[in-house]
Model the fold of this input.
Amino acid sequence: MHTTVCITGARGFVGSNLSPYLREAGYTVAPLSLRAPEQAVVLPEADAVIHLAGQAHDHKGIVPAADYFRINRDLTKLVFEQFLLSGARVFIHFSTVAAVAVDEVTGLLTEDALPQPGTAYGQSKLEAEQYLLSRLLPPGKKLFIIRPAMIHGPGDKGNLTLLYNFVAHGIPYPLAAFRNRRSFLSIDNLCFVVEQLLQKAEDVPDGIYNLVDDEPLSTNEVVNVIAQCLGKKCRQWSLPKSLVSSVARLGDILPLPLNSARLRKLTTDFVVSNHKIKRALGIVHLPVTAREGLVKTISSFREE
Done:
């Protein structure tokens, strides 16, 4: 079967991994470069559109809020309208779990959770989702909205940077007193699921799907894996939580490696369910375990 897939944001981290993966699987990839909603969007002839282009979450707070809405919401609207007019049958939109929650989740986050985005990034992604779901799909067309957790893989550490630097420089990890569980997403599992969606699109219900690895990991486990990959002794300190919180608040004012936002991401629970997407695709387990994906990512940085 010859299938052409248009990918927006093909030069980004996800796109630069997904494009060769799909080509190897026999798809023709047609990248589409998008700069801003002001430009005319012209989709190439394709059977499917994967919309990756967007304004990533800026943890330094430099990106103006308006930019998130201009790119994540308004540009998505334009691309989707062109999809509705085109001959393409499948639209896969990449949103984020941040459209539902910020840094902490009580229990298991499912697709039915009431959205409570706490950032302009998350709100802009949510408004894009709401627009897509409000449009009537012509017969024969499919819409899949993917909400990934933190994506990592060779070429991009994501939020693993701070932990990696701690271990690589022999600095003891000072947050061992915090016990948490968080969901991650290996780029290999992401590519696998997207290809499965393209292959089985006709049998998969439209809608929103979370996408994460099968098993959550604690931050302490992540630090242990990094140490093992680097061949270093894992040094962890269980400092009083009150002391750590005070240092983080100081980091909100001074340029310290730890601030309140980073502390929340490193120490709170954020476990996401991937049962819906696996059930829809008829999959029991994703091909790469959370630990295997993390080892692959960290090993690639060591080689660099």
Observations:
- The longest strand covers residues 142-148.
- Strands lie at 4-8, 28-32, 48-51, 90-94, 108-109, 142-148, 150-152, 184-186, 207-211, 271-272.
